[in-house]
Amino acid sequence: MRRSAEAEAGGRLTRAIVRLPAENFGLGLTTSRLGPPDHAKMLAQHAAYVRALEGLGLEVLTLEPQPKFPDGHFVEDTAVVLPGLAVITRPGAPSRRGEEETIEPVLRRFRPIARIREPGTLDGGDVLVVGRRVFIGLSERTNDEGARQLGRLVEGEGYSWTTVPVVSGLHLKSGVNVAGENTLLITRRLAESGLFRSYHLIEVAPSEEAAANVLCCNGRLLMPAGFDRTREKLERLGLSPEVLDVSEAGKMDGGLTCLSLRF
Ligand code: CIR
Q1: Residue 200: which of 130, 124, 120, 129 has the closest Cα?
Q2: pLDDT tens digits, 198-230
Q3: What is the CA radius of gyration of the chain?
Q4: Which ligand 1 atom minimizes the distance to the CA of 141?
């Protein structure tokens, strides 16, 4: 299959972009009450994350830390990358605006570029692509105008789209992600929206909402550590997740998907 056609079918991805966490990453935005994060531990967890991405068959491009943007290692929020186009976002949090400018020259090497423009705001964490359908979360970070702009761009690439009110977590992908073929791992609150009913839905345990931030790529599944009930459920279903500790990112409201752009 042509590489782009494979990707269009939700197929094989070849690259990932990550950014090393800056020493001051604990100054980033957070609503969690999990305590201050530890930089050395974060670096070790980030290195293990990069190794896991390489294990998925991705060539990982690692960018330098950017102390000017303490949330800058959550690169997922700065772009939406499709087989034929990279959309540079306009992050919803004022303190994060500008991160996207540091990603644009990197993505320009791989894709034609489009942009979300003022007054639109959009974080990549609010964008879930499932096959040829794009779900765009309306959240504190992504507004109607940002969603509409992205919708028009993805339509031009042959995708359909719909908006989803974000009812669990910071971003849409805090609460729902692809976990396998036609299968989503999802919080009960998002499942109840009915918007995802055409997929096979696996609900995370109600006490384990953050377990929904799994990363499915090239036929493999990564999940965050600390969510045994959900892990056992996935194992029973034969999905055999690889477990990664992302506790320090979690203290800053981040997780597995936020730490990379994959395409
Ligand atoms: C923020 O609040 O923007 C960061 N501290 C966390 C961003 C997490 N990103 C994501 O879920 N895509």
Answers
A1: 130
A2: 999 999 998 999 999 999 999 999 999 999 999
A3: 17
A4: 3
Pairwise CA distance, residues 10 & 90, whole Å? 25
Which amino acid would we find at residue 165? Answer: P
The residue written with tokens 């020493």 in the block is 23
Six-digit token pair at 63?
A: 């960018």
Is the separation of the CB atoms in 13 and 58 below 8 Å? yes
Residue closest via CA to ligand 1's atom 7 equals 254
Q: Which residue has the tokens 């991405």?
A: 53
The two three-digit tokens of residue 102, written as one number = 């540091």
Q: In the structure encoding, which two tokens stand for residue 147, read together?
A: 């969603």
Helix (H, G, I), strand (E, B) or coil at 16: strand
CB of 254 sitting under 6 A from ligand 1:
yes
156 Cα: distance to centroid of ligand 1 (angstroms)? 28
Phi, psi of 120 (to 5 degrees): -70, 145
pLDDT tens digits, one per residue of 78-112? 999 999 999 999 999 999 999 999 999 999 999 99
Residues marked as catalytic: 171, 258
Could you tell me the two tokens for 139?
Answer: 């959240």
